[in-house]
Amino acid sequence: MKVTFQIEGGSPVQIECNAGDNLLELARRANVAIDAPCSGNGSCGKCRVQLVEGQLESLKSRHITDEEYEVGWRLSCSSKVVGDCTVFVPDIASAYQSRMKTADLSSPEEVAIFDHAQKALRESGIVFENRFQALSLEMDAPTPEDTMPDNERLTWAIQAQLGDVAVDIPYAVMVRLAHTLREHDFKVTVKGERRGDRFFCMEICGPEDTDVVGCAIDIGTTTVSMVLVDLTSGRILAKGSSGNGQIRYGADVINRIIEQGRPGGKKKLQDAIVKETLTPILANLCKSAKISARSILRLSVGANTTMNHLLLGVDAQSVRMDPYVPSFFSWEGLLAGDLKLPANPLAPVVIAPNIGSYVGGDITAGTLASGIWDKDEMSLFIDLGTNGEIVFGNRDFLMSCACSAGPAFEGGDISCGMRATDGAMEAVTLDKDTMEPTMEIVGEPGQKCVGICGSGIIDIISELYRCGIINAKGLFVREGRRVKRDAHGMGRFVLAFPEESETGREVSINEVDIDNFIRAKGAIFSAIDTLLRAVDMTVDMIDHVYVAGGIGSGINMRNAVNIGMLPDVEIEKFSYIGNSSLTGSYAMVVSDGAIAKCAEVAANMTYLELSTHPGYMDSFVAACFIPHTDRSLFPSSVQEG
Amino acid sequence: MKVTFQIEGGSPVQIECNAGDNLLELARRANVAIDAPCSGNGSCGKCRVQLVEGQLESLKSRHITDEEYEVGWRLSCSSKVVGDCTVFVPDIASAYQSRMKTADLSSPEEVAIFDHAQKALRESGIVFENRFQALSLEMDAPTPEDTMPDNERLTWAIQAQLGDVAVDIPYAVMVRLAHTLREHDFKVTVKGERRGDRFFCMEICGPEDTDVVGCAIDIGTTTVSMVLVDLTSGRILAKGSSGNGQIRYGADVINRIIEQGRPGGKKKLQDAIVKETLTPILANLCKSAKISARSILRLSVGANTTMNHLLLGVDAQSVRMDPYVPSFFSWEGLLAGDLKLPANPLAPVVIAPNIGSYVGGDITAGTLASGIWDKDEMSLFIDLGTNGEIVFGNRDFLMSCACSAGPAFEGGDISCGMRATDGAMEAVTLDKDTMEPTMEIVGEPGQKCVGICGSGIIDIISELYRCGIINAKGLFVREGRRVKRDAHGMGRFVLAFPEESETGREVSINEVDIDNFIRAKGAIFSAIDTLLRAVDMTVDMIDHVYVAGGIGSGINMRNAVNIGMLPDVEIEKFSYIGNSSLTGSYAMVVSDGAIAKCAEVAANMTYLELSTHPGYMDSFVAACFIPHTDRSLFPSSVQEG
Questions:
Q1: Residue B42: pLDDT above 80?
Q2: Segments making up each domain of chain B, as ranges
């Protein structure tokens, strides 16, 4: 049997399948992009499609109203194929666009943060230069008197510009040389890399194309972000992001490693990130920047250790199994062609070095971007992602550890969670008496609420706690118009009634959401706590706190402290530094010096394995309260009584 | 509709096709090997298949007897598909074997010639060493106390053996590292290339596999030969040859270049040599040598300029068009993976340098093998192939030119021509009075005649001329039992009547065959003549004549002189040096020094373009007689009157 996907704004896609196949998985297999941040467990309600013809066997979801169900709307993750059918997949183009709009660096605030980080790196002495260049060459055509063959002619022309260099012409250029020279009357552009006293050709094309482009990639467990960069000016040409397609093999790294160990697993997991995630974004970015994929001459990747192994198709079993020794920390030698990425196949892919099984290149790149390696003061760097990673130290030492926080900070694992796109509630205050919310919604003025993004979740939990609506365990202890309970007695707080929301569906946060979040913030705080203890330091010795991650610039640090997520230091010491892995990757793709510096940072960083560290579990259990079982750690946390 | 090929000793192969499709081309498309040295023009009669079911529209051929026709035998080149049908393809396995048996280096004589050439190269100071090696490594497995990641562990182990080298681990090795180390308890072999102060890993495998193998390739316009070589000892592990699959796009280089210029032509011609010719031979050689394809760490190619361009898929139009400037003469940078050859994808493919549009790497490699670059005496080096190439000179200068001889020397273009395999008449004398032949047939004693190979053709024409059976124009002028004429009066000489032959078919040589051959030998001699004149020298100044090519060690030099093919010098001055392109390729794959020397030889060689050289055409016309219009050039040529 087969399923036809009618993609809004695109061509239909058909795929052969069997009865019982999961519709979301089919869509992934068919390379049809459907948003599913919760990894297909039915909790996020993002993967909506509309049945046009035929039947599906679908679980009823609270994300689909009766009226919507009536006209065919289903969650693809909760639908099984029972026969031939056709489904409508809404607005992929605009979904991509909205993703791109909400990508890191999409808001003026994030761009400012990004620019500030780059400026700081320059001030730290990192030179933003690289060895890639485009040469505009004009040659004479061969004549009976001038019978130099094409490759020697090209070599001479390059040497006329660069002086006494050896010129390497690889097959990919050689095979197109004769044709390209003649097509453009011997006036061409050659792009390549200066390698000491050699020039390595990477591309030959017409004279008008002189683009020399890099691509910086941040591969998160949940979200992937990319920027295309002009390697000459450092200017950002395009940016985009999307969910990590591996999510259907597990929301966390452990499940994905297990999946990779099954027969065919290495290829499945690699395809999910390379073919299904990176390739479509990259192709889109090239299109929007109007550059040819072959103009991309270097890529850089900031990703955690597991993501790096899965990306390469390298066996990651040793990452999760005693003695937790991965296949590599740092490794040079990857080419875009090895992964069949839509870029110049000869383009090196720089992988930010990992330093442990659970502190990876995203953190070394992020640490590079944070600048803490250049300071005398003691800094705490916290990357809030599916995994939370912490680095503490200064120019003399750097100590790191990691914990599993889950996707709560990125809007996953939360029933009305979403990324910080249009309609996301990103900040809220509650009137203590009436419990009425005052919300900030991402988007144009008048935008109604669709869901709650990471910073909004921190705010609402903090406000619920401050107003005494929930207790230290996150359970509802006040009643009111916006406090509802379901048949099982589970409480929830309604931020937007159906008539107030954009979608006609209620936006709320319930006790399960709050519990999920408390575990996430507890993991983060206990990791910070354990790391500080390991170096025999205390919270009051922290001079700076840099918070990074997809949670967004809207994060209210005071509220994050209030609920015991971040350490209770003066609020002025906090900075949000955006997607620092992407910022670091950007620096590395543009700057040879940044690559060297990142390697140095990694070499100087010590890794603390929390899972085997005495005291970590106790610290975690103690941190799973609002703000903490030991309230003395959070003197400024308030619950107005 | 479809055709099913029932391959003797193999699995049937089916291919979709259209009415009117040529059966031989279909076979090529379906990768079904059918011998067709005449390039499918119906003259060689080698491409016999037997119709089992359905119909074919076939031209009647003198190569198929009525009885054979009755039971379904057809020439595949002369058959068109008219509907579904099944054809039997005889004994591909044994056909391949017989090809391998008849490969260069298959006879003790050829091996002796080959060994002599290698010995001479060593004596000329060429060191038979290369930088490829297999390292047997034993490592400790990781423990909680020894948490070095896999790639660093490997690097240390390599450095423990080789000292202070940088180790490059490319993706192909990295991706298999974790798994291979653990599969073999951290005892592995790493194969790679020493590059100055670096070691470049190319393969990781179990400890028992330590093969370090090279592959030397001679790509002729008509025939392709290969040897697998142990790169450590220089020992030949396997050898094989077959027809060049490009032959269906033309027997000569010009037609193939034209074909390459058509849409999709670059890929078609490249596939014909890479996928259809080199790949099956190479896979066969690996199987017979019991080595893994990934053990092949270097390849070398001796091929003419056009073959080199077509091999690479590089536009060859400029080779045949004014000003005859090819895309490259020499080029480094090709990897086996670029061509998807069944070898280590990282293995460099060394291409013997071309020096002109029509003097290619087969000639520079052959010149290297001939040793004439190391002598004081004046030597003439003649490579008899589809193209004839001539080099003249000594250690002080080398001058070269080329002419188009056609496939006559390899048994093509001759009605009963065949390669020097079992049943080939390779030498003959005639009784002047009775005209009865005394033949030497390749094979076991008692082997009956099947056809005539190159050396046999020289002999029979020389003998026919000597006995006054043909005149200087190659026309029959005596009658007798063995001299027959067809309905159009065309004469032929019967070497074996049907009842005397192996196949029950007559083996003979006719006036068209003789005319084809005279043109071929005329081209060769006039090229020699023109080259000598260009350097202002004469035949008597020649100290050595080295004859190379697939014509075989059976060549009777005296007869070749007698018919005016080779210059009339003392018979002691002639040496047959076999397939010198393959010999030179062998030297280059084993010896880094040979690669350098070949480049030096190429750099010192001057190229004379005959097609535009005044006097060449006149010389050619004068040479198209037996022995020549100017008999004074051949004082020792005899016609017993």
A1: no
A2: 2-90, 117-123+363-641, 132-205, 211-351
Q: What is the DSSP letter of B625?
A: S
How far A151 CA sits from the closest chain B CA (Å)?
Answer: 6
Residue whose structure tokens are 């076939």: B58
End-to-end CA distance of chain B: 62
Single-letter code of the amino acid located at A254? I
Length in residues, chain A: 641
Answer yes or no: same fold for A211-351 and A369-407+517-632. Answer: yes
Chain B residues near residue A151 by CB distance under 8 angstroms: 327-328, 331
CA nearest to A273, candidates A289, A286, A287, A259: A259
How far from the centroid of its chain's Cα atoms is residue B141's Cα? 50
Q: Is the peptide bond before B323 cis (omega within 30 degrees of 0)?
A: yes
- Per CATH, which fold does B132-205 belong to? Ubiquitin-like (UB roll) (3.10.20)
CB nearest to A327's CB, from B178, B322, B331: B178
Instruction: Provide the CATH topology of domain A369-407+517-632.
Output: Nucleotidyltransferase; domain 5 (3.30.420)
Residue B178 is nearest to which of A170, A315, A334, comparing CB atoms? Answer: A315
Backbone φ, ψ for residue B497 (5° rounding): -70, 160
Q: CA of B432, closest CA in chain A: separation in Å? A: 53
Interchain contact, B177 vs A314, CB within 8 Å: yes
Which residues have C-beta within 8 Å of that of residue A288, sequence separation ≥ 6? A100, A238, A240
Distances (CA, A) of A9 to A6, A90, A156, B260: 9, 9, 49, 40
| Residue B537 amino acid letter | M
Q: How far apart are CA A176 and CA A178, in angstroms?
A: 6
Contacts of B168 in chain A (CB under 8 A): 333
Q: Give residue A279's identity as a one-letter amino acid code.
A: T
CA distances from A635 to A5, A527, A638, A639, B272 (A): 55, 20, 8, 11, 79
Q: What was the ipTM of the complex prediction?
A: 0.84
Inter-chain CB pairs, A–B, below 8 Å: 114
* pLDDT band per the 50, 70, 90 thresholds, residue A180: very high
Phi, psi of A310 (to 5 degrees): -65, -35
Element (H, E) at A29: helix A23-29
Facing B331 at nearest CB: one of A169, A313, A317: A169
Nearest to B142 among A152, A323, A338 (CB): A323
Model confidence at A412, in pLDDT bands (50, 70, 90)?
Answer: low
- In the numeric block, which tokens belong to residue B302? 């001796």
DSSP-assigned letter for residue B636: T
Q: For residues B473 and B305, what is the distance between their CA atoms, to the nearest angstrom?
A: 34
Superfamily of domain B211-351: Domain of unknown function (DUF4445) (3.30.420.480)
Question: What CATH fold (topology level) applies to the domain A2-90?
Answer: Ubiquitin-like (UB roll) (3.10.20)
CA distances from A350 to A170, A266, A364, A582 (A): 20, 21, 13, 13
CB contact under 8 Å between B329 and A143, yes or no, is: no
Q: Decide: residue B71, CB within 10 A, 0-12 exposed, 13-18 middle, 19+ buried.
A: exposed
Q: What is the CA radius of gyration of chain B?
A: 26
| pLDDT band at residue A99 using 50, 70 and 90 as cut-offs | very low
Dihedral of alpha carbons A183, A187, A192, A194, sign: positive
B97: pLDDT strictly greater than 50: no
Q: Over range A281-298, report the average pLDDT.
A: 96
d(CA B335, nearest CA chain A) in Å? 8
Task: Work out the angle at residue A264's Cα, subtended by the Cα atoms of residues A260 and A268, and round it to the nearest 5 degrees.
Answer: 65
**Gyration radius from chain A CA atoms:** 26
The number of CA neighbours under 13 Å toward the Cβ of A303 is 30
Residues B380, B392: Cα–Cα separation, whole Å: 5
Q: Is B309 left (phi over 0), alpha (psi -120 to 50) or beta?
A: alpha
pTM: 0.84
